[in-house]
Write a structure and sequence with these properties.
The protein is an alpha/beta fold. 38% of the residues lie in helices and 19% in strands. It has a single domain, classed as Molybdenum Cofactor Biosythetic Enzyme, Chain A, CATH 3.40.980. α2 crosses α3 and α4 packs across α5.
């Protein structure tokens, strides 16, 4: 079997915060650094307040953009009243990737013990685009990227990965021949 070649993906990064600016966005910076170090492309980056309709609107816009393959959001996945990122993601998802939350919880348990139960990290697919909602801490972003996403977004990762099925994510929307 021949060695597979790396296929870079185009990843948009959304930080959800009522108080952070780009200069203070350590979680977004963490993701951007890891995306670029892995050989992927940062397609866009934004910060939005914890407003469900604004978050969902941006997710939908990126899902409609042919220049975006993957969306990573950070922040707003907790349990407080202003944490609405998960709900915004679910407003957009066509399919949820339930195992992402399970695997993220498993990874988090090794780092922060039972405090992992407070995370509502989630993943899904919409309009042929992968979406992942990560907690707002740099540590959680590192864990999600280093332990899950860097592998699943690498076409060379075996036995399977997200990249190899990317061309088929929107097959239900294509016209039958």
């Amino acid at each position: 079997m021949s060695e597979r070649e790396f296929i870079p993906t185009r990843i948009a990064v959304l930080t959800v915060s009522d108080s952070r600016s780009m200069a203070e966005d350590r979680s977004g910076d963490t993701l951007v650094a890891r995306i670029e170090a892995a050989g992927h492309i940062v397609a866009d980056r934004k910060i939005l307040p914890d407003e469900r309709h604004e978050i969902a609107g941006q997710l939908r816009a990126w899902c409609a953009d042919e220049g975006v393959d993957v969306i990573l959001s950070t922040g707003g996945t907790g349990l407080t009243g202003r944490d609405v990122t998960v709900e915004a993601h679910r407003d957009v998802y066509e399919k949820e990737i339930e195992a992402f939350a399970t695997v993220f919880t498993h990874v988090s348990m090794a780092k922060i013990g039972t405090s992992a139960v407070q995370s509502r990290a989630t993943g899904g697919v919409a309009n042929g685009t992968y979406l992942f909602a990560l907690p707002g801490s740099p540590g959680a972003c590192k864990d999600a990227w280093d332990e899950i996403l860097v592998k699943q977004l690498d076409y060379r990762h075996m036995p399977c990965n997200f990249v190899e099925i990317m061309p088929r994510l929107d097959e239900h929307m294509r016209r039958k021949k």
